[in-house]
Design goal:
By secondary structure, the chain is of the alpha/beta class. 42% of the residues lie in helices and 25% in strands. It has a 9-stranded mixed β-sheet, with helices on both faces.
Length: 245
């Protein structure tokens, strides 16, 4: 891990950009604290960190100032300034064509779009976690939030350092992920936008039902894909406070 910039924001939060090999990322840490700060991993959508930075930074700064959490994110494969990924670009084009045709999106298109991203992303998140937890001032337990929801499913199933997760329903889910969800046993909070134009609501409900967690809560709100209510940020923070402190 190599830090490329550092700045203290007006609320006292320290923001540091870093690279992990070819992977760009950002770390936000609280202004001060005598104990190691719990860490929340924030998975971005595959749109590029520069495009979604305001959303991610707002969440991270809220966690830092209100709860004393650190937060970190990394660029997903094929997104932002990372090298283009021809197979995923083709899968995205196939998805657009299927949606424009007005018919159902085939399982082959969903698998081609999501599974390669899961296979490559999860080891990268684990490498980032190795590097982050070696830094002074950071400690476990670790939370995870965000969507592509399938990345969260796989990471929660295989990474024992993840103690709790807030998952955002709103992306297509390959059939194999429903079986993997049965192996997820950590506390979960799942956000679902009921009128999400890009989401298969029934698939999201079926995935929620498949999770093996004894503690799982579904927060379903009216509205489209980008209409998550502001109060869900506080709900997620309180959820992490219960499980990370």
């Amino acid at each position: 891990m190599h830090f490329t910039s550092e700045q203290r924001l007006d609320d006292g939060v320290i923001e540091r950009a870093f690279t992990l090999g070819e992977i760009p990322g950002i770390l936000w840490t609280p202004a001060s604290g005598s104990e190691p700060a719990p860490l929340v991993l924030i998975c971005p959508p595959p749109l590029g960190l520069s495009r979604v930075y305001p959303r991610l930074a707002a969440r991270a700064r809220y966690y830092a100032t209100q709860y004393g959490f650190a937060a970190a994110t990394i660029e997903l494969p094929g997104s932002g300034d990372r090298p283009r990924w021809d197979a995923v670009d083709q899968a995205r084009a196939d998805l657009r064509s299927a949606m424009e045709a007005g018919g159902p999106v085939g399982a082959d298109v969903i698998d081609a779009l999501v599974l390669p991203l899961v296979e490559r992303s999860v080891p990268e998140w684990q490498s980032a976690l190795d590097a982050l937890l070696s830094l002074p001032g950071l400690g476990g337990p670790v939370g995870y939030e965000g969507g592509v929801i399938s990345i969260g499913v796989r990471l929660a199933a295989v990474e024992p350092r993840i103690a709790a997760a807030v998952l955002f329903a709103g992306s297509l889910v390959p059939a194999v992920m429903f079986e993997e969800a049965r192996g997820v046993t950590i506390p979960l909070q799942v956000l679902l936008q009921w009128d999400d134009e890009d989401n298969d609501r029934q698939a999201a409900l079926d995935l929620y039902d498949a999770f093996g967690s004894k503690e799982k809560t579904l927060h379903a709100n009216m509205g489209g894909h980008t209409g998550v209510p502001r109060f869900e940020l506080e709900n997620g923070a309180r959820f992490f406070a219960r499980h990370l402190k």
